[in-house]
Design goal:
Elements: H1 3-6, E1 7-9, H2 10-15, H3 25-36, H4 39-48, H5 50-77, H6 84-92, H7 94-115, H8 121-136, H9 155-174, H10 178-191, H11 194-212, H12 225-244, H13 267-291, H14 293-297, E2 299-301
Antiparallel strand pairs: 1-2
Helix pairs in contact: 4-5, 5-12, 6-7, 6-11, 7-8, 7-9, 7-11, 7-13, 8-9, 10-13, 11-12
Amino acid sequence: MSETLERVTVAASEESQKLQRHFGRFDILFFLICTIVGVDTIASVASSGGEAFTWMIVLAVIFFIPQALLFAELGSAFPQEGGPYFWTRLAFGHLVGAINNFLYWITNPVWIGGTLAGACVGAIEGSDRALAVSCYDGAGPRFLGVISAKYGTPGRVNIFSGIVATIVVILAETITSGNAAKYFGAVLGVTISTTLISYLGIYPAVWKLRRSHPNVPRPFRMPWVPVLTVLLTLLILIATIQLIMPGLGDQWFGSNYAPDGWDYSEKWIYLLTELVPVLCFALIGTLFWWLGRGTRAETTVMAADLLPEPIEG
């Protein structure tokens, strides 16, 4: 193991001992099925007919399967708590990890508040744990990086998520008509998609860690790493561009691409409503990184028994 993997913050050595494993292999399997094949996904595919089903098959081949291979390597080689945050931080440093992880986290409380979707409660618990890990790892305020000794859950981050979700619920119920509702809907749409944007930092990590940590044992090795990493990153980049500038490359903000209630003359306004929130989240991630400077300054050597145990079936 490299020195980077062995040295952790003092806070991490304390808090990681409180973590408890709540999901087994089969729990994770069915959880992933629920997150990918949601009720809204089924309805969308059904309304679009056979064409949508065909594209789902294409996406499975060029996206879901390569992504599964990538996560299999990262998860088996670097099983530390925090998952996507840890991989990004290890590959690119605390600043990139902090920004990327905030983008990864903010989607879920806003998703709950904006859609009242009970199915995303499990997802928010995963992202809340990742945010707590980043905070006791020095990529966020130490106050949020606390794990309950009794339950093994990130209680303070859970409350933080609840506050954010409640604010979104209130805004969604209050802003129901006019231009304000239109702009709020656009901001809400990009906010619940920031997890997608965070993959721009996660996917390249597998290639970077192959080069920076070549001696770490890898129970599973992703085949064709350069090709598949570039493919996955390119797909997410295209999706991100289309999210912010729908129709770019064909007819930017044309009638076939503009969201309901928007017209072509408002394309620059729409761009700002999508781009500004993402930049604000990146600034908040940078602020989190700055607030974690004191935690990063206090490090210790990680004991072997603090490394996560293999998941039992």
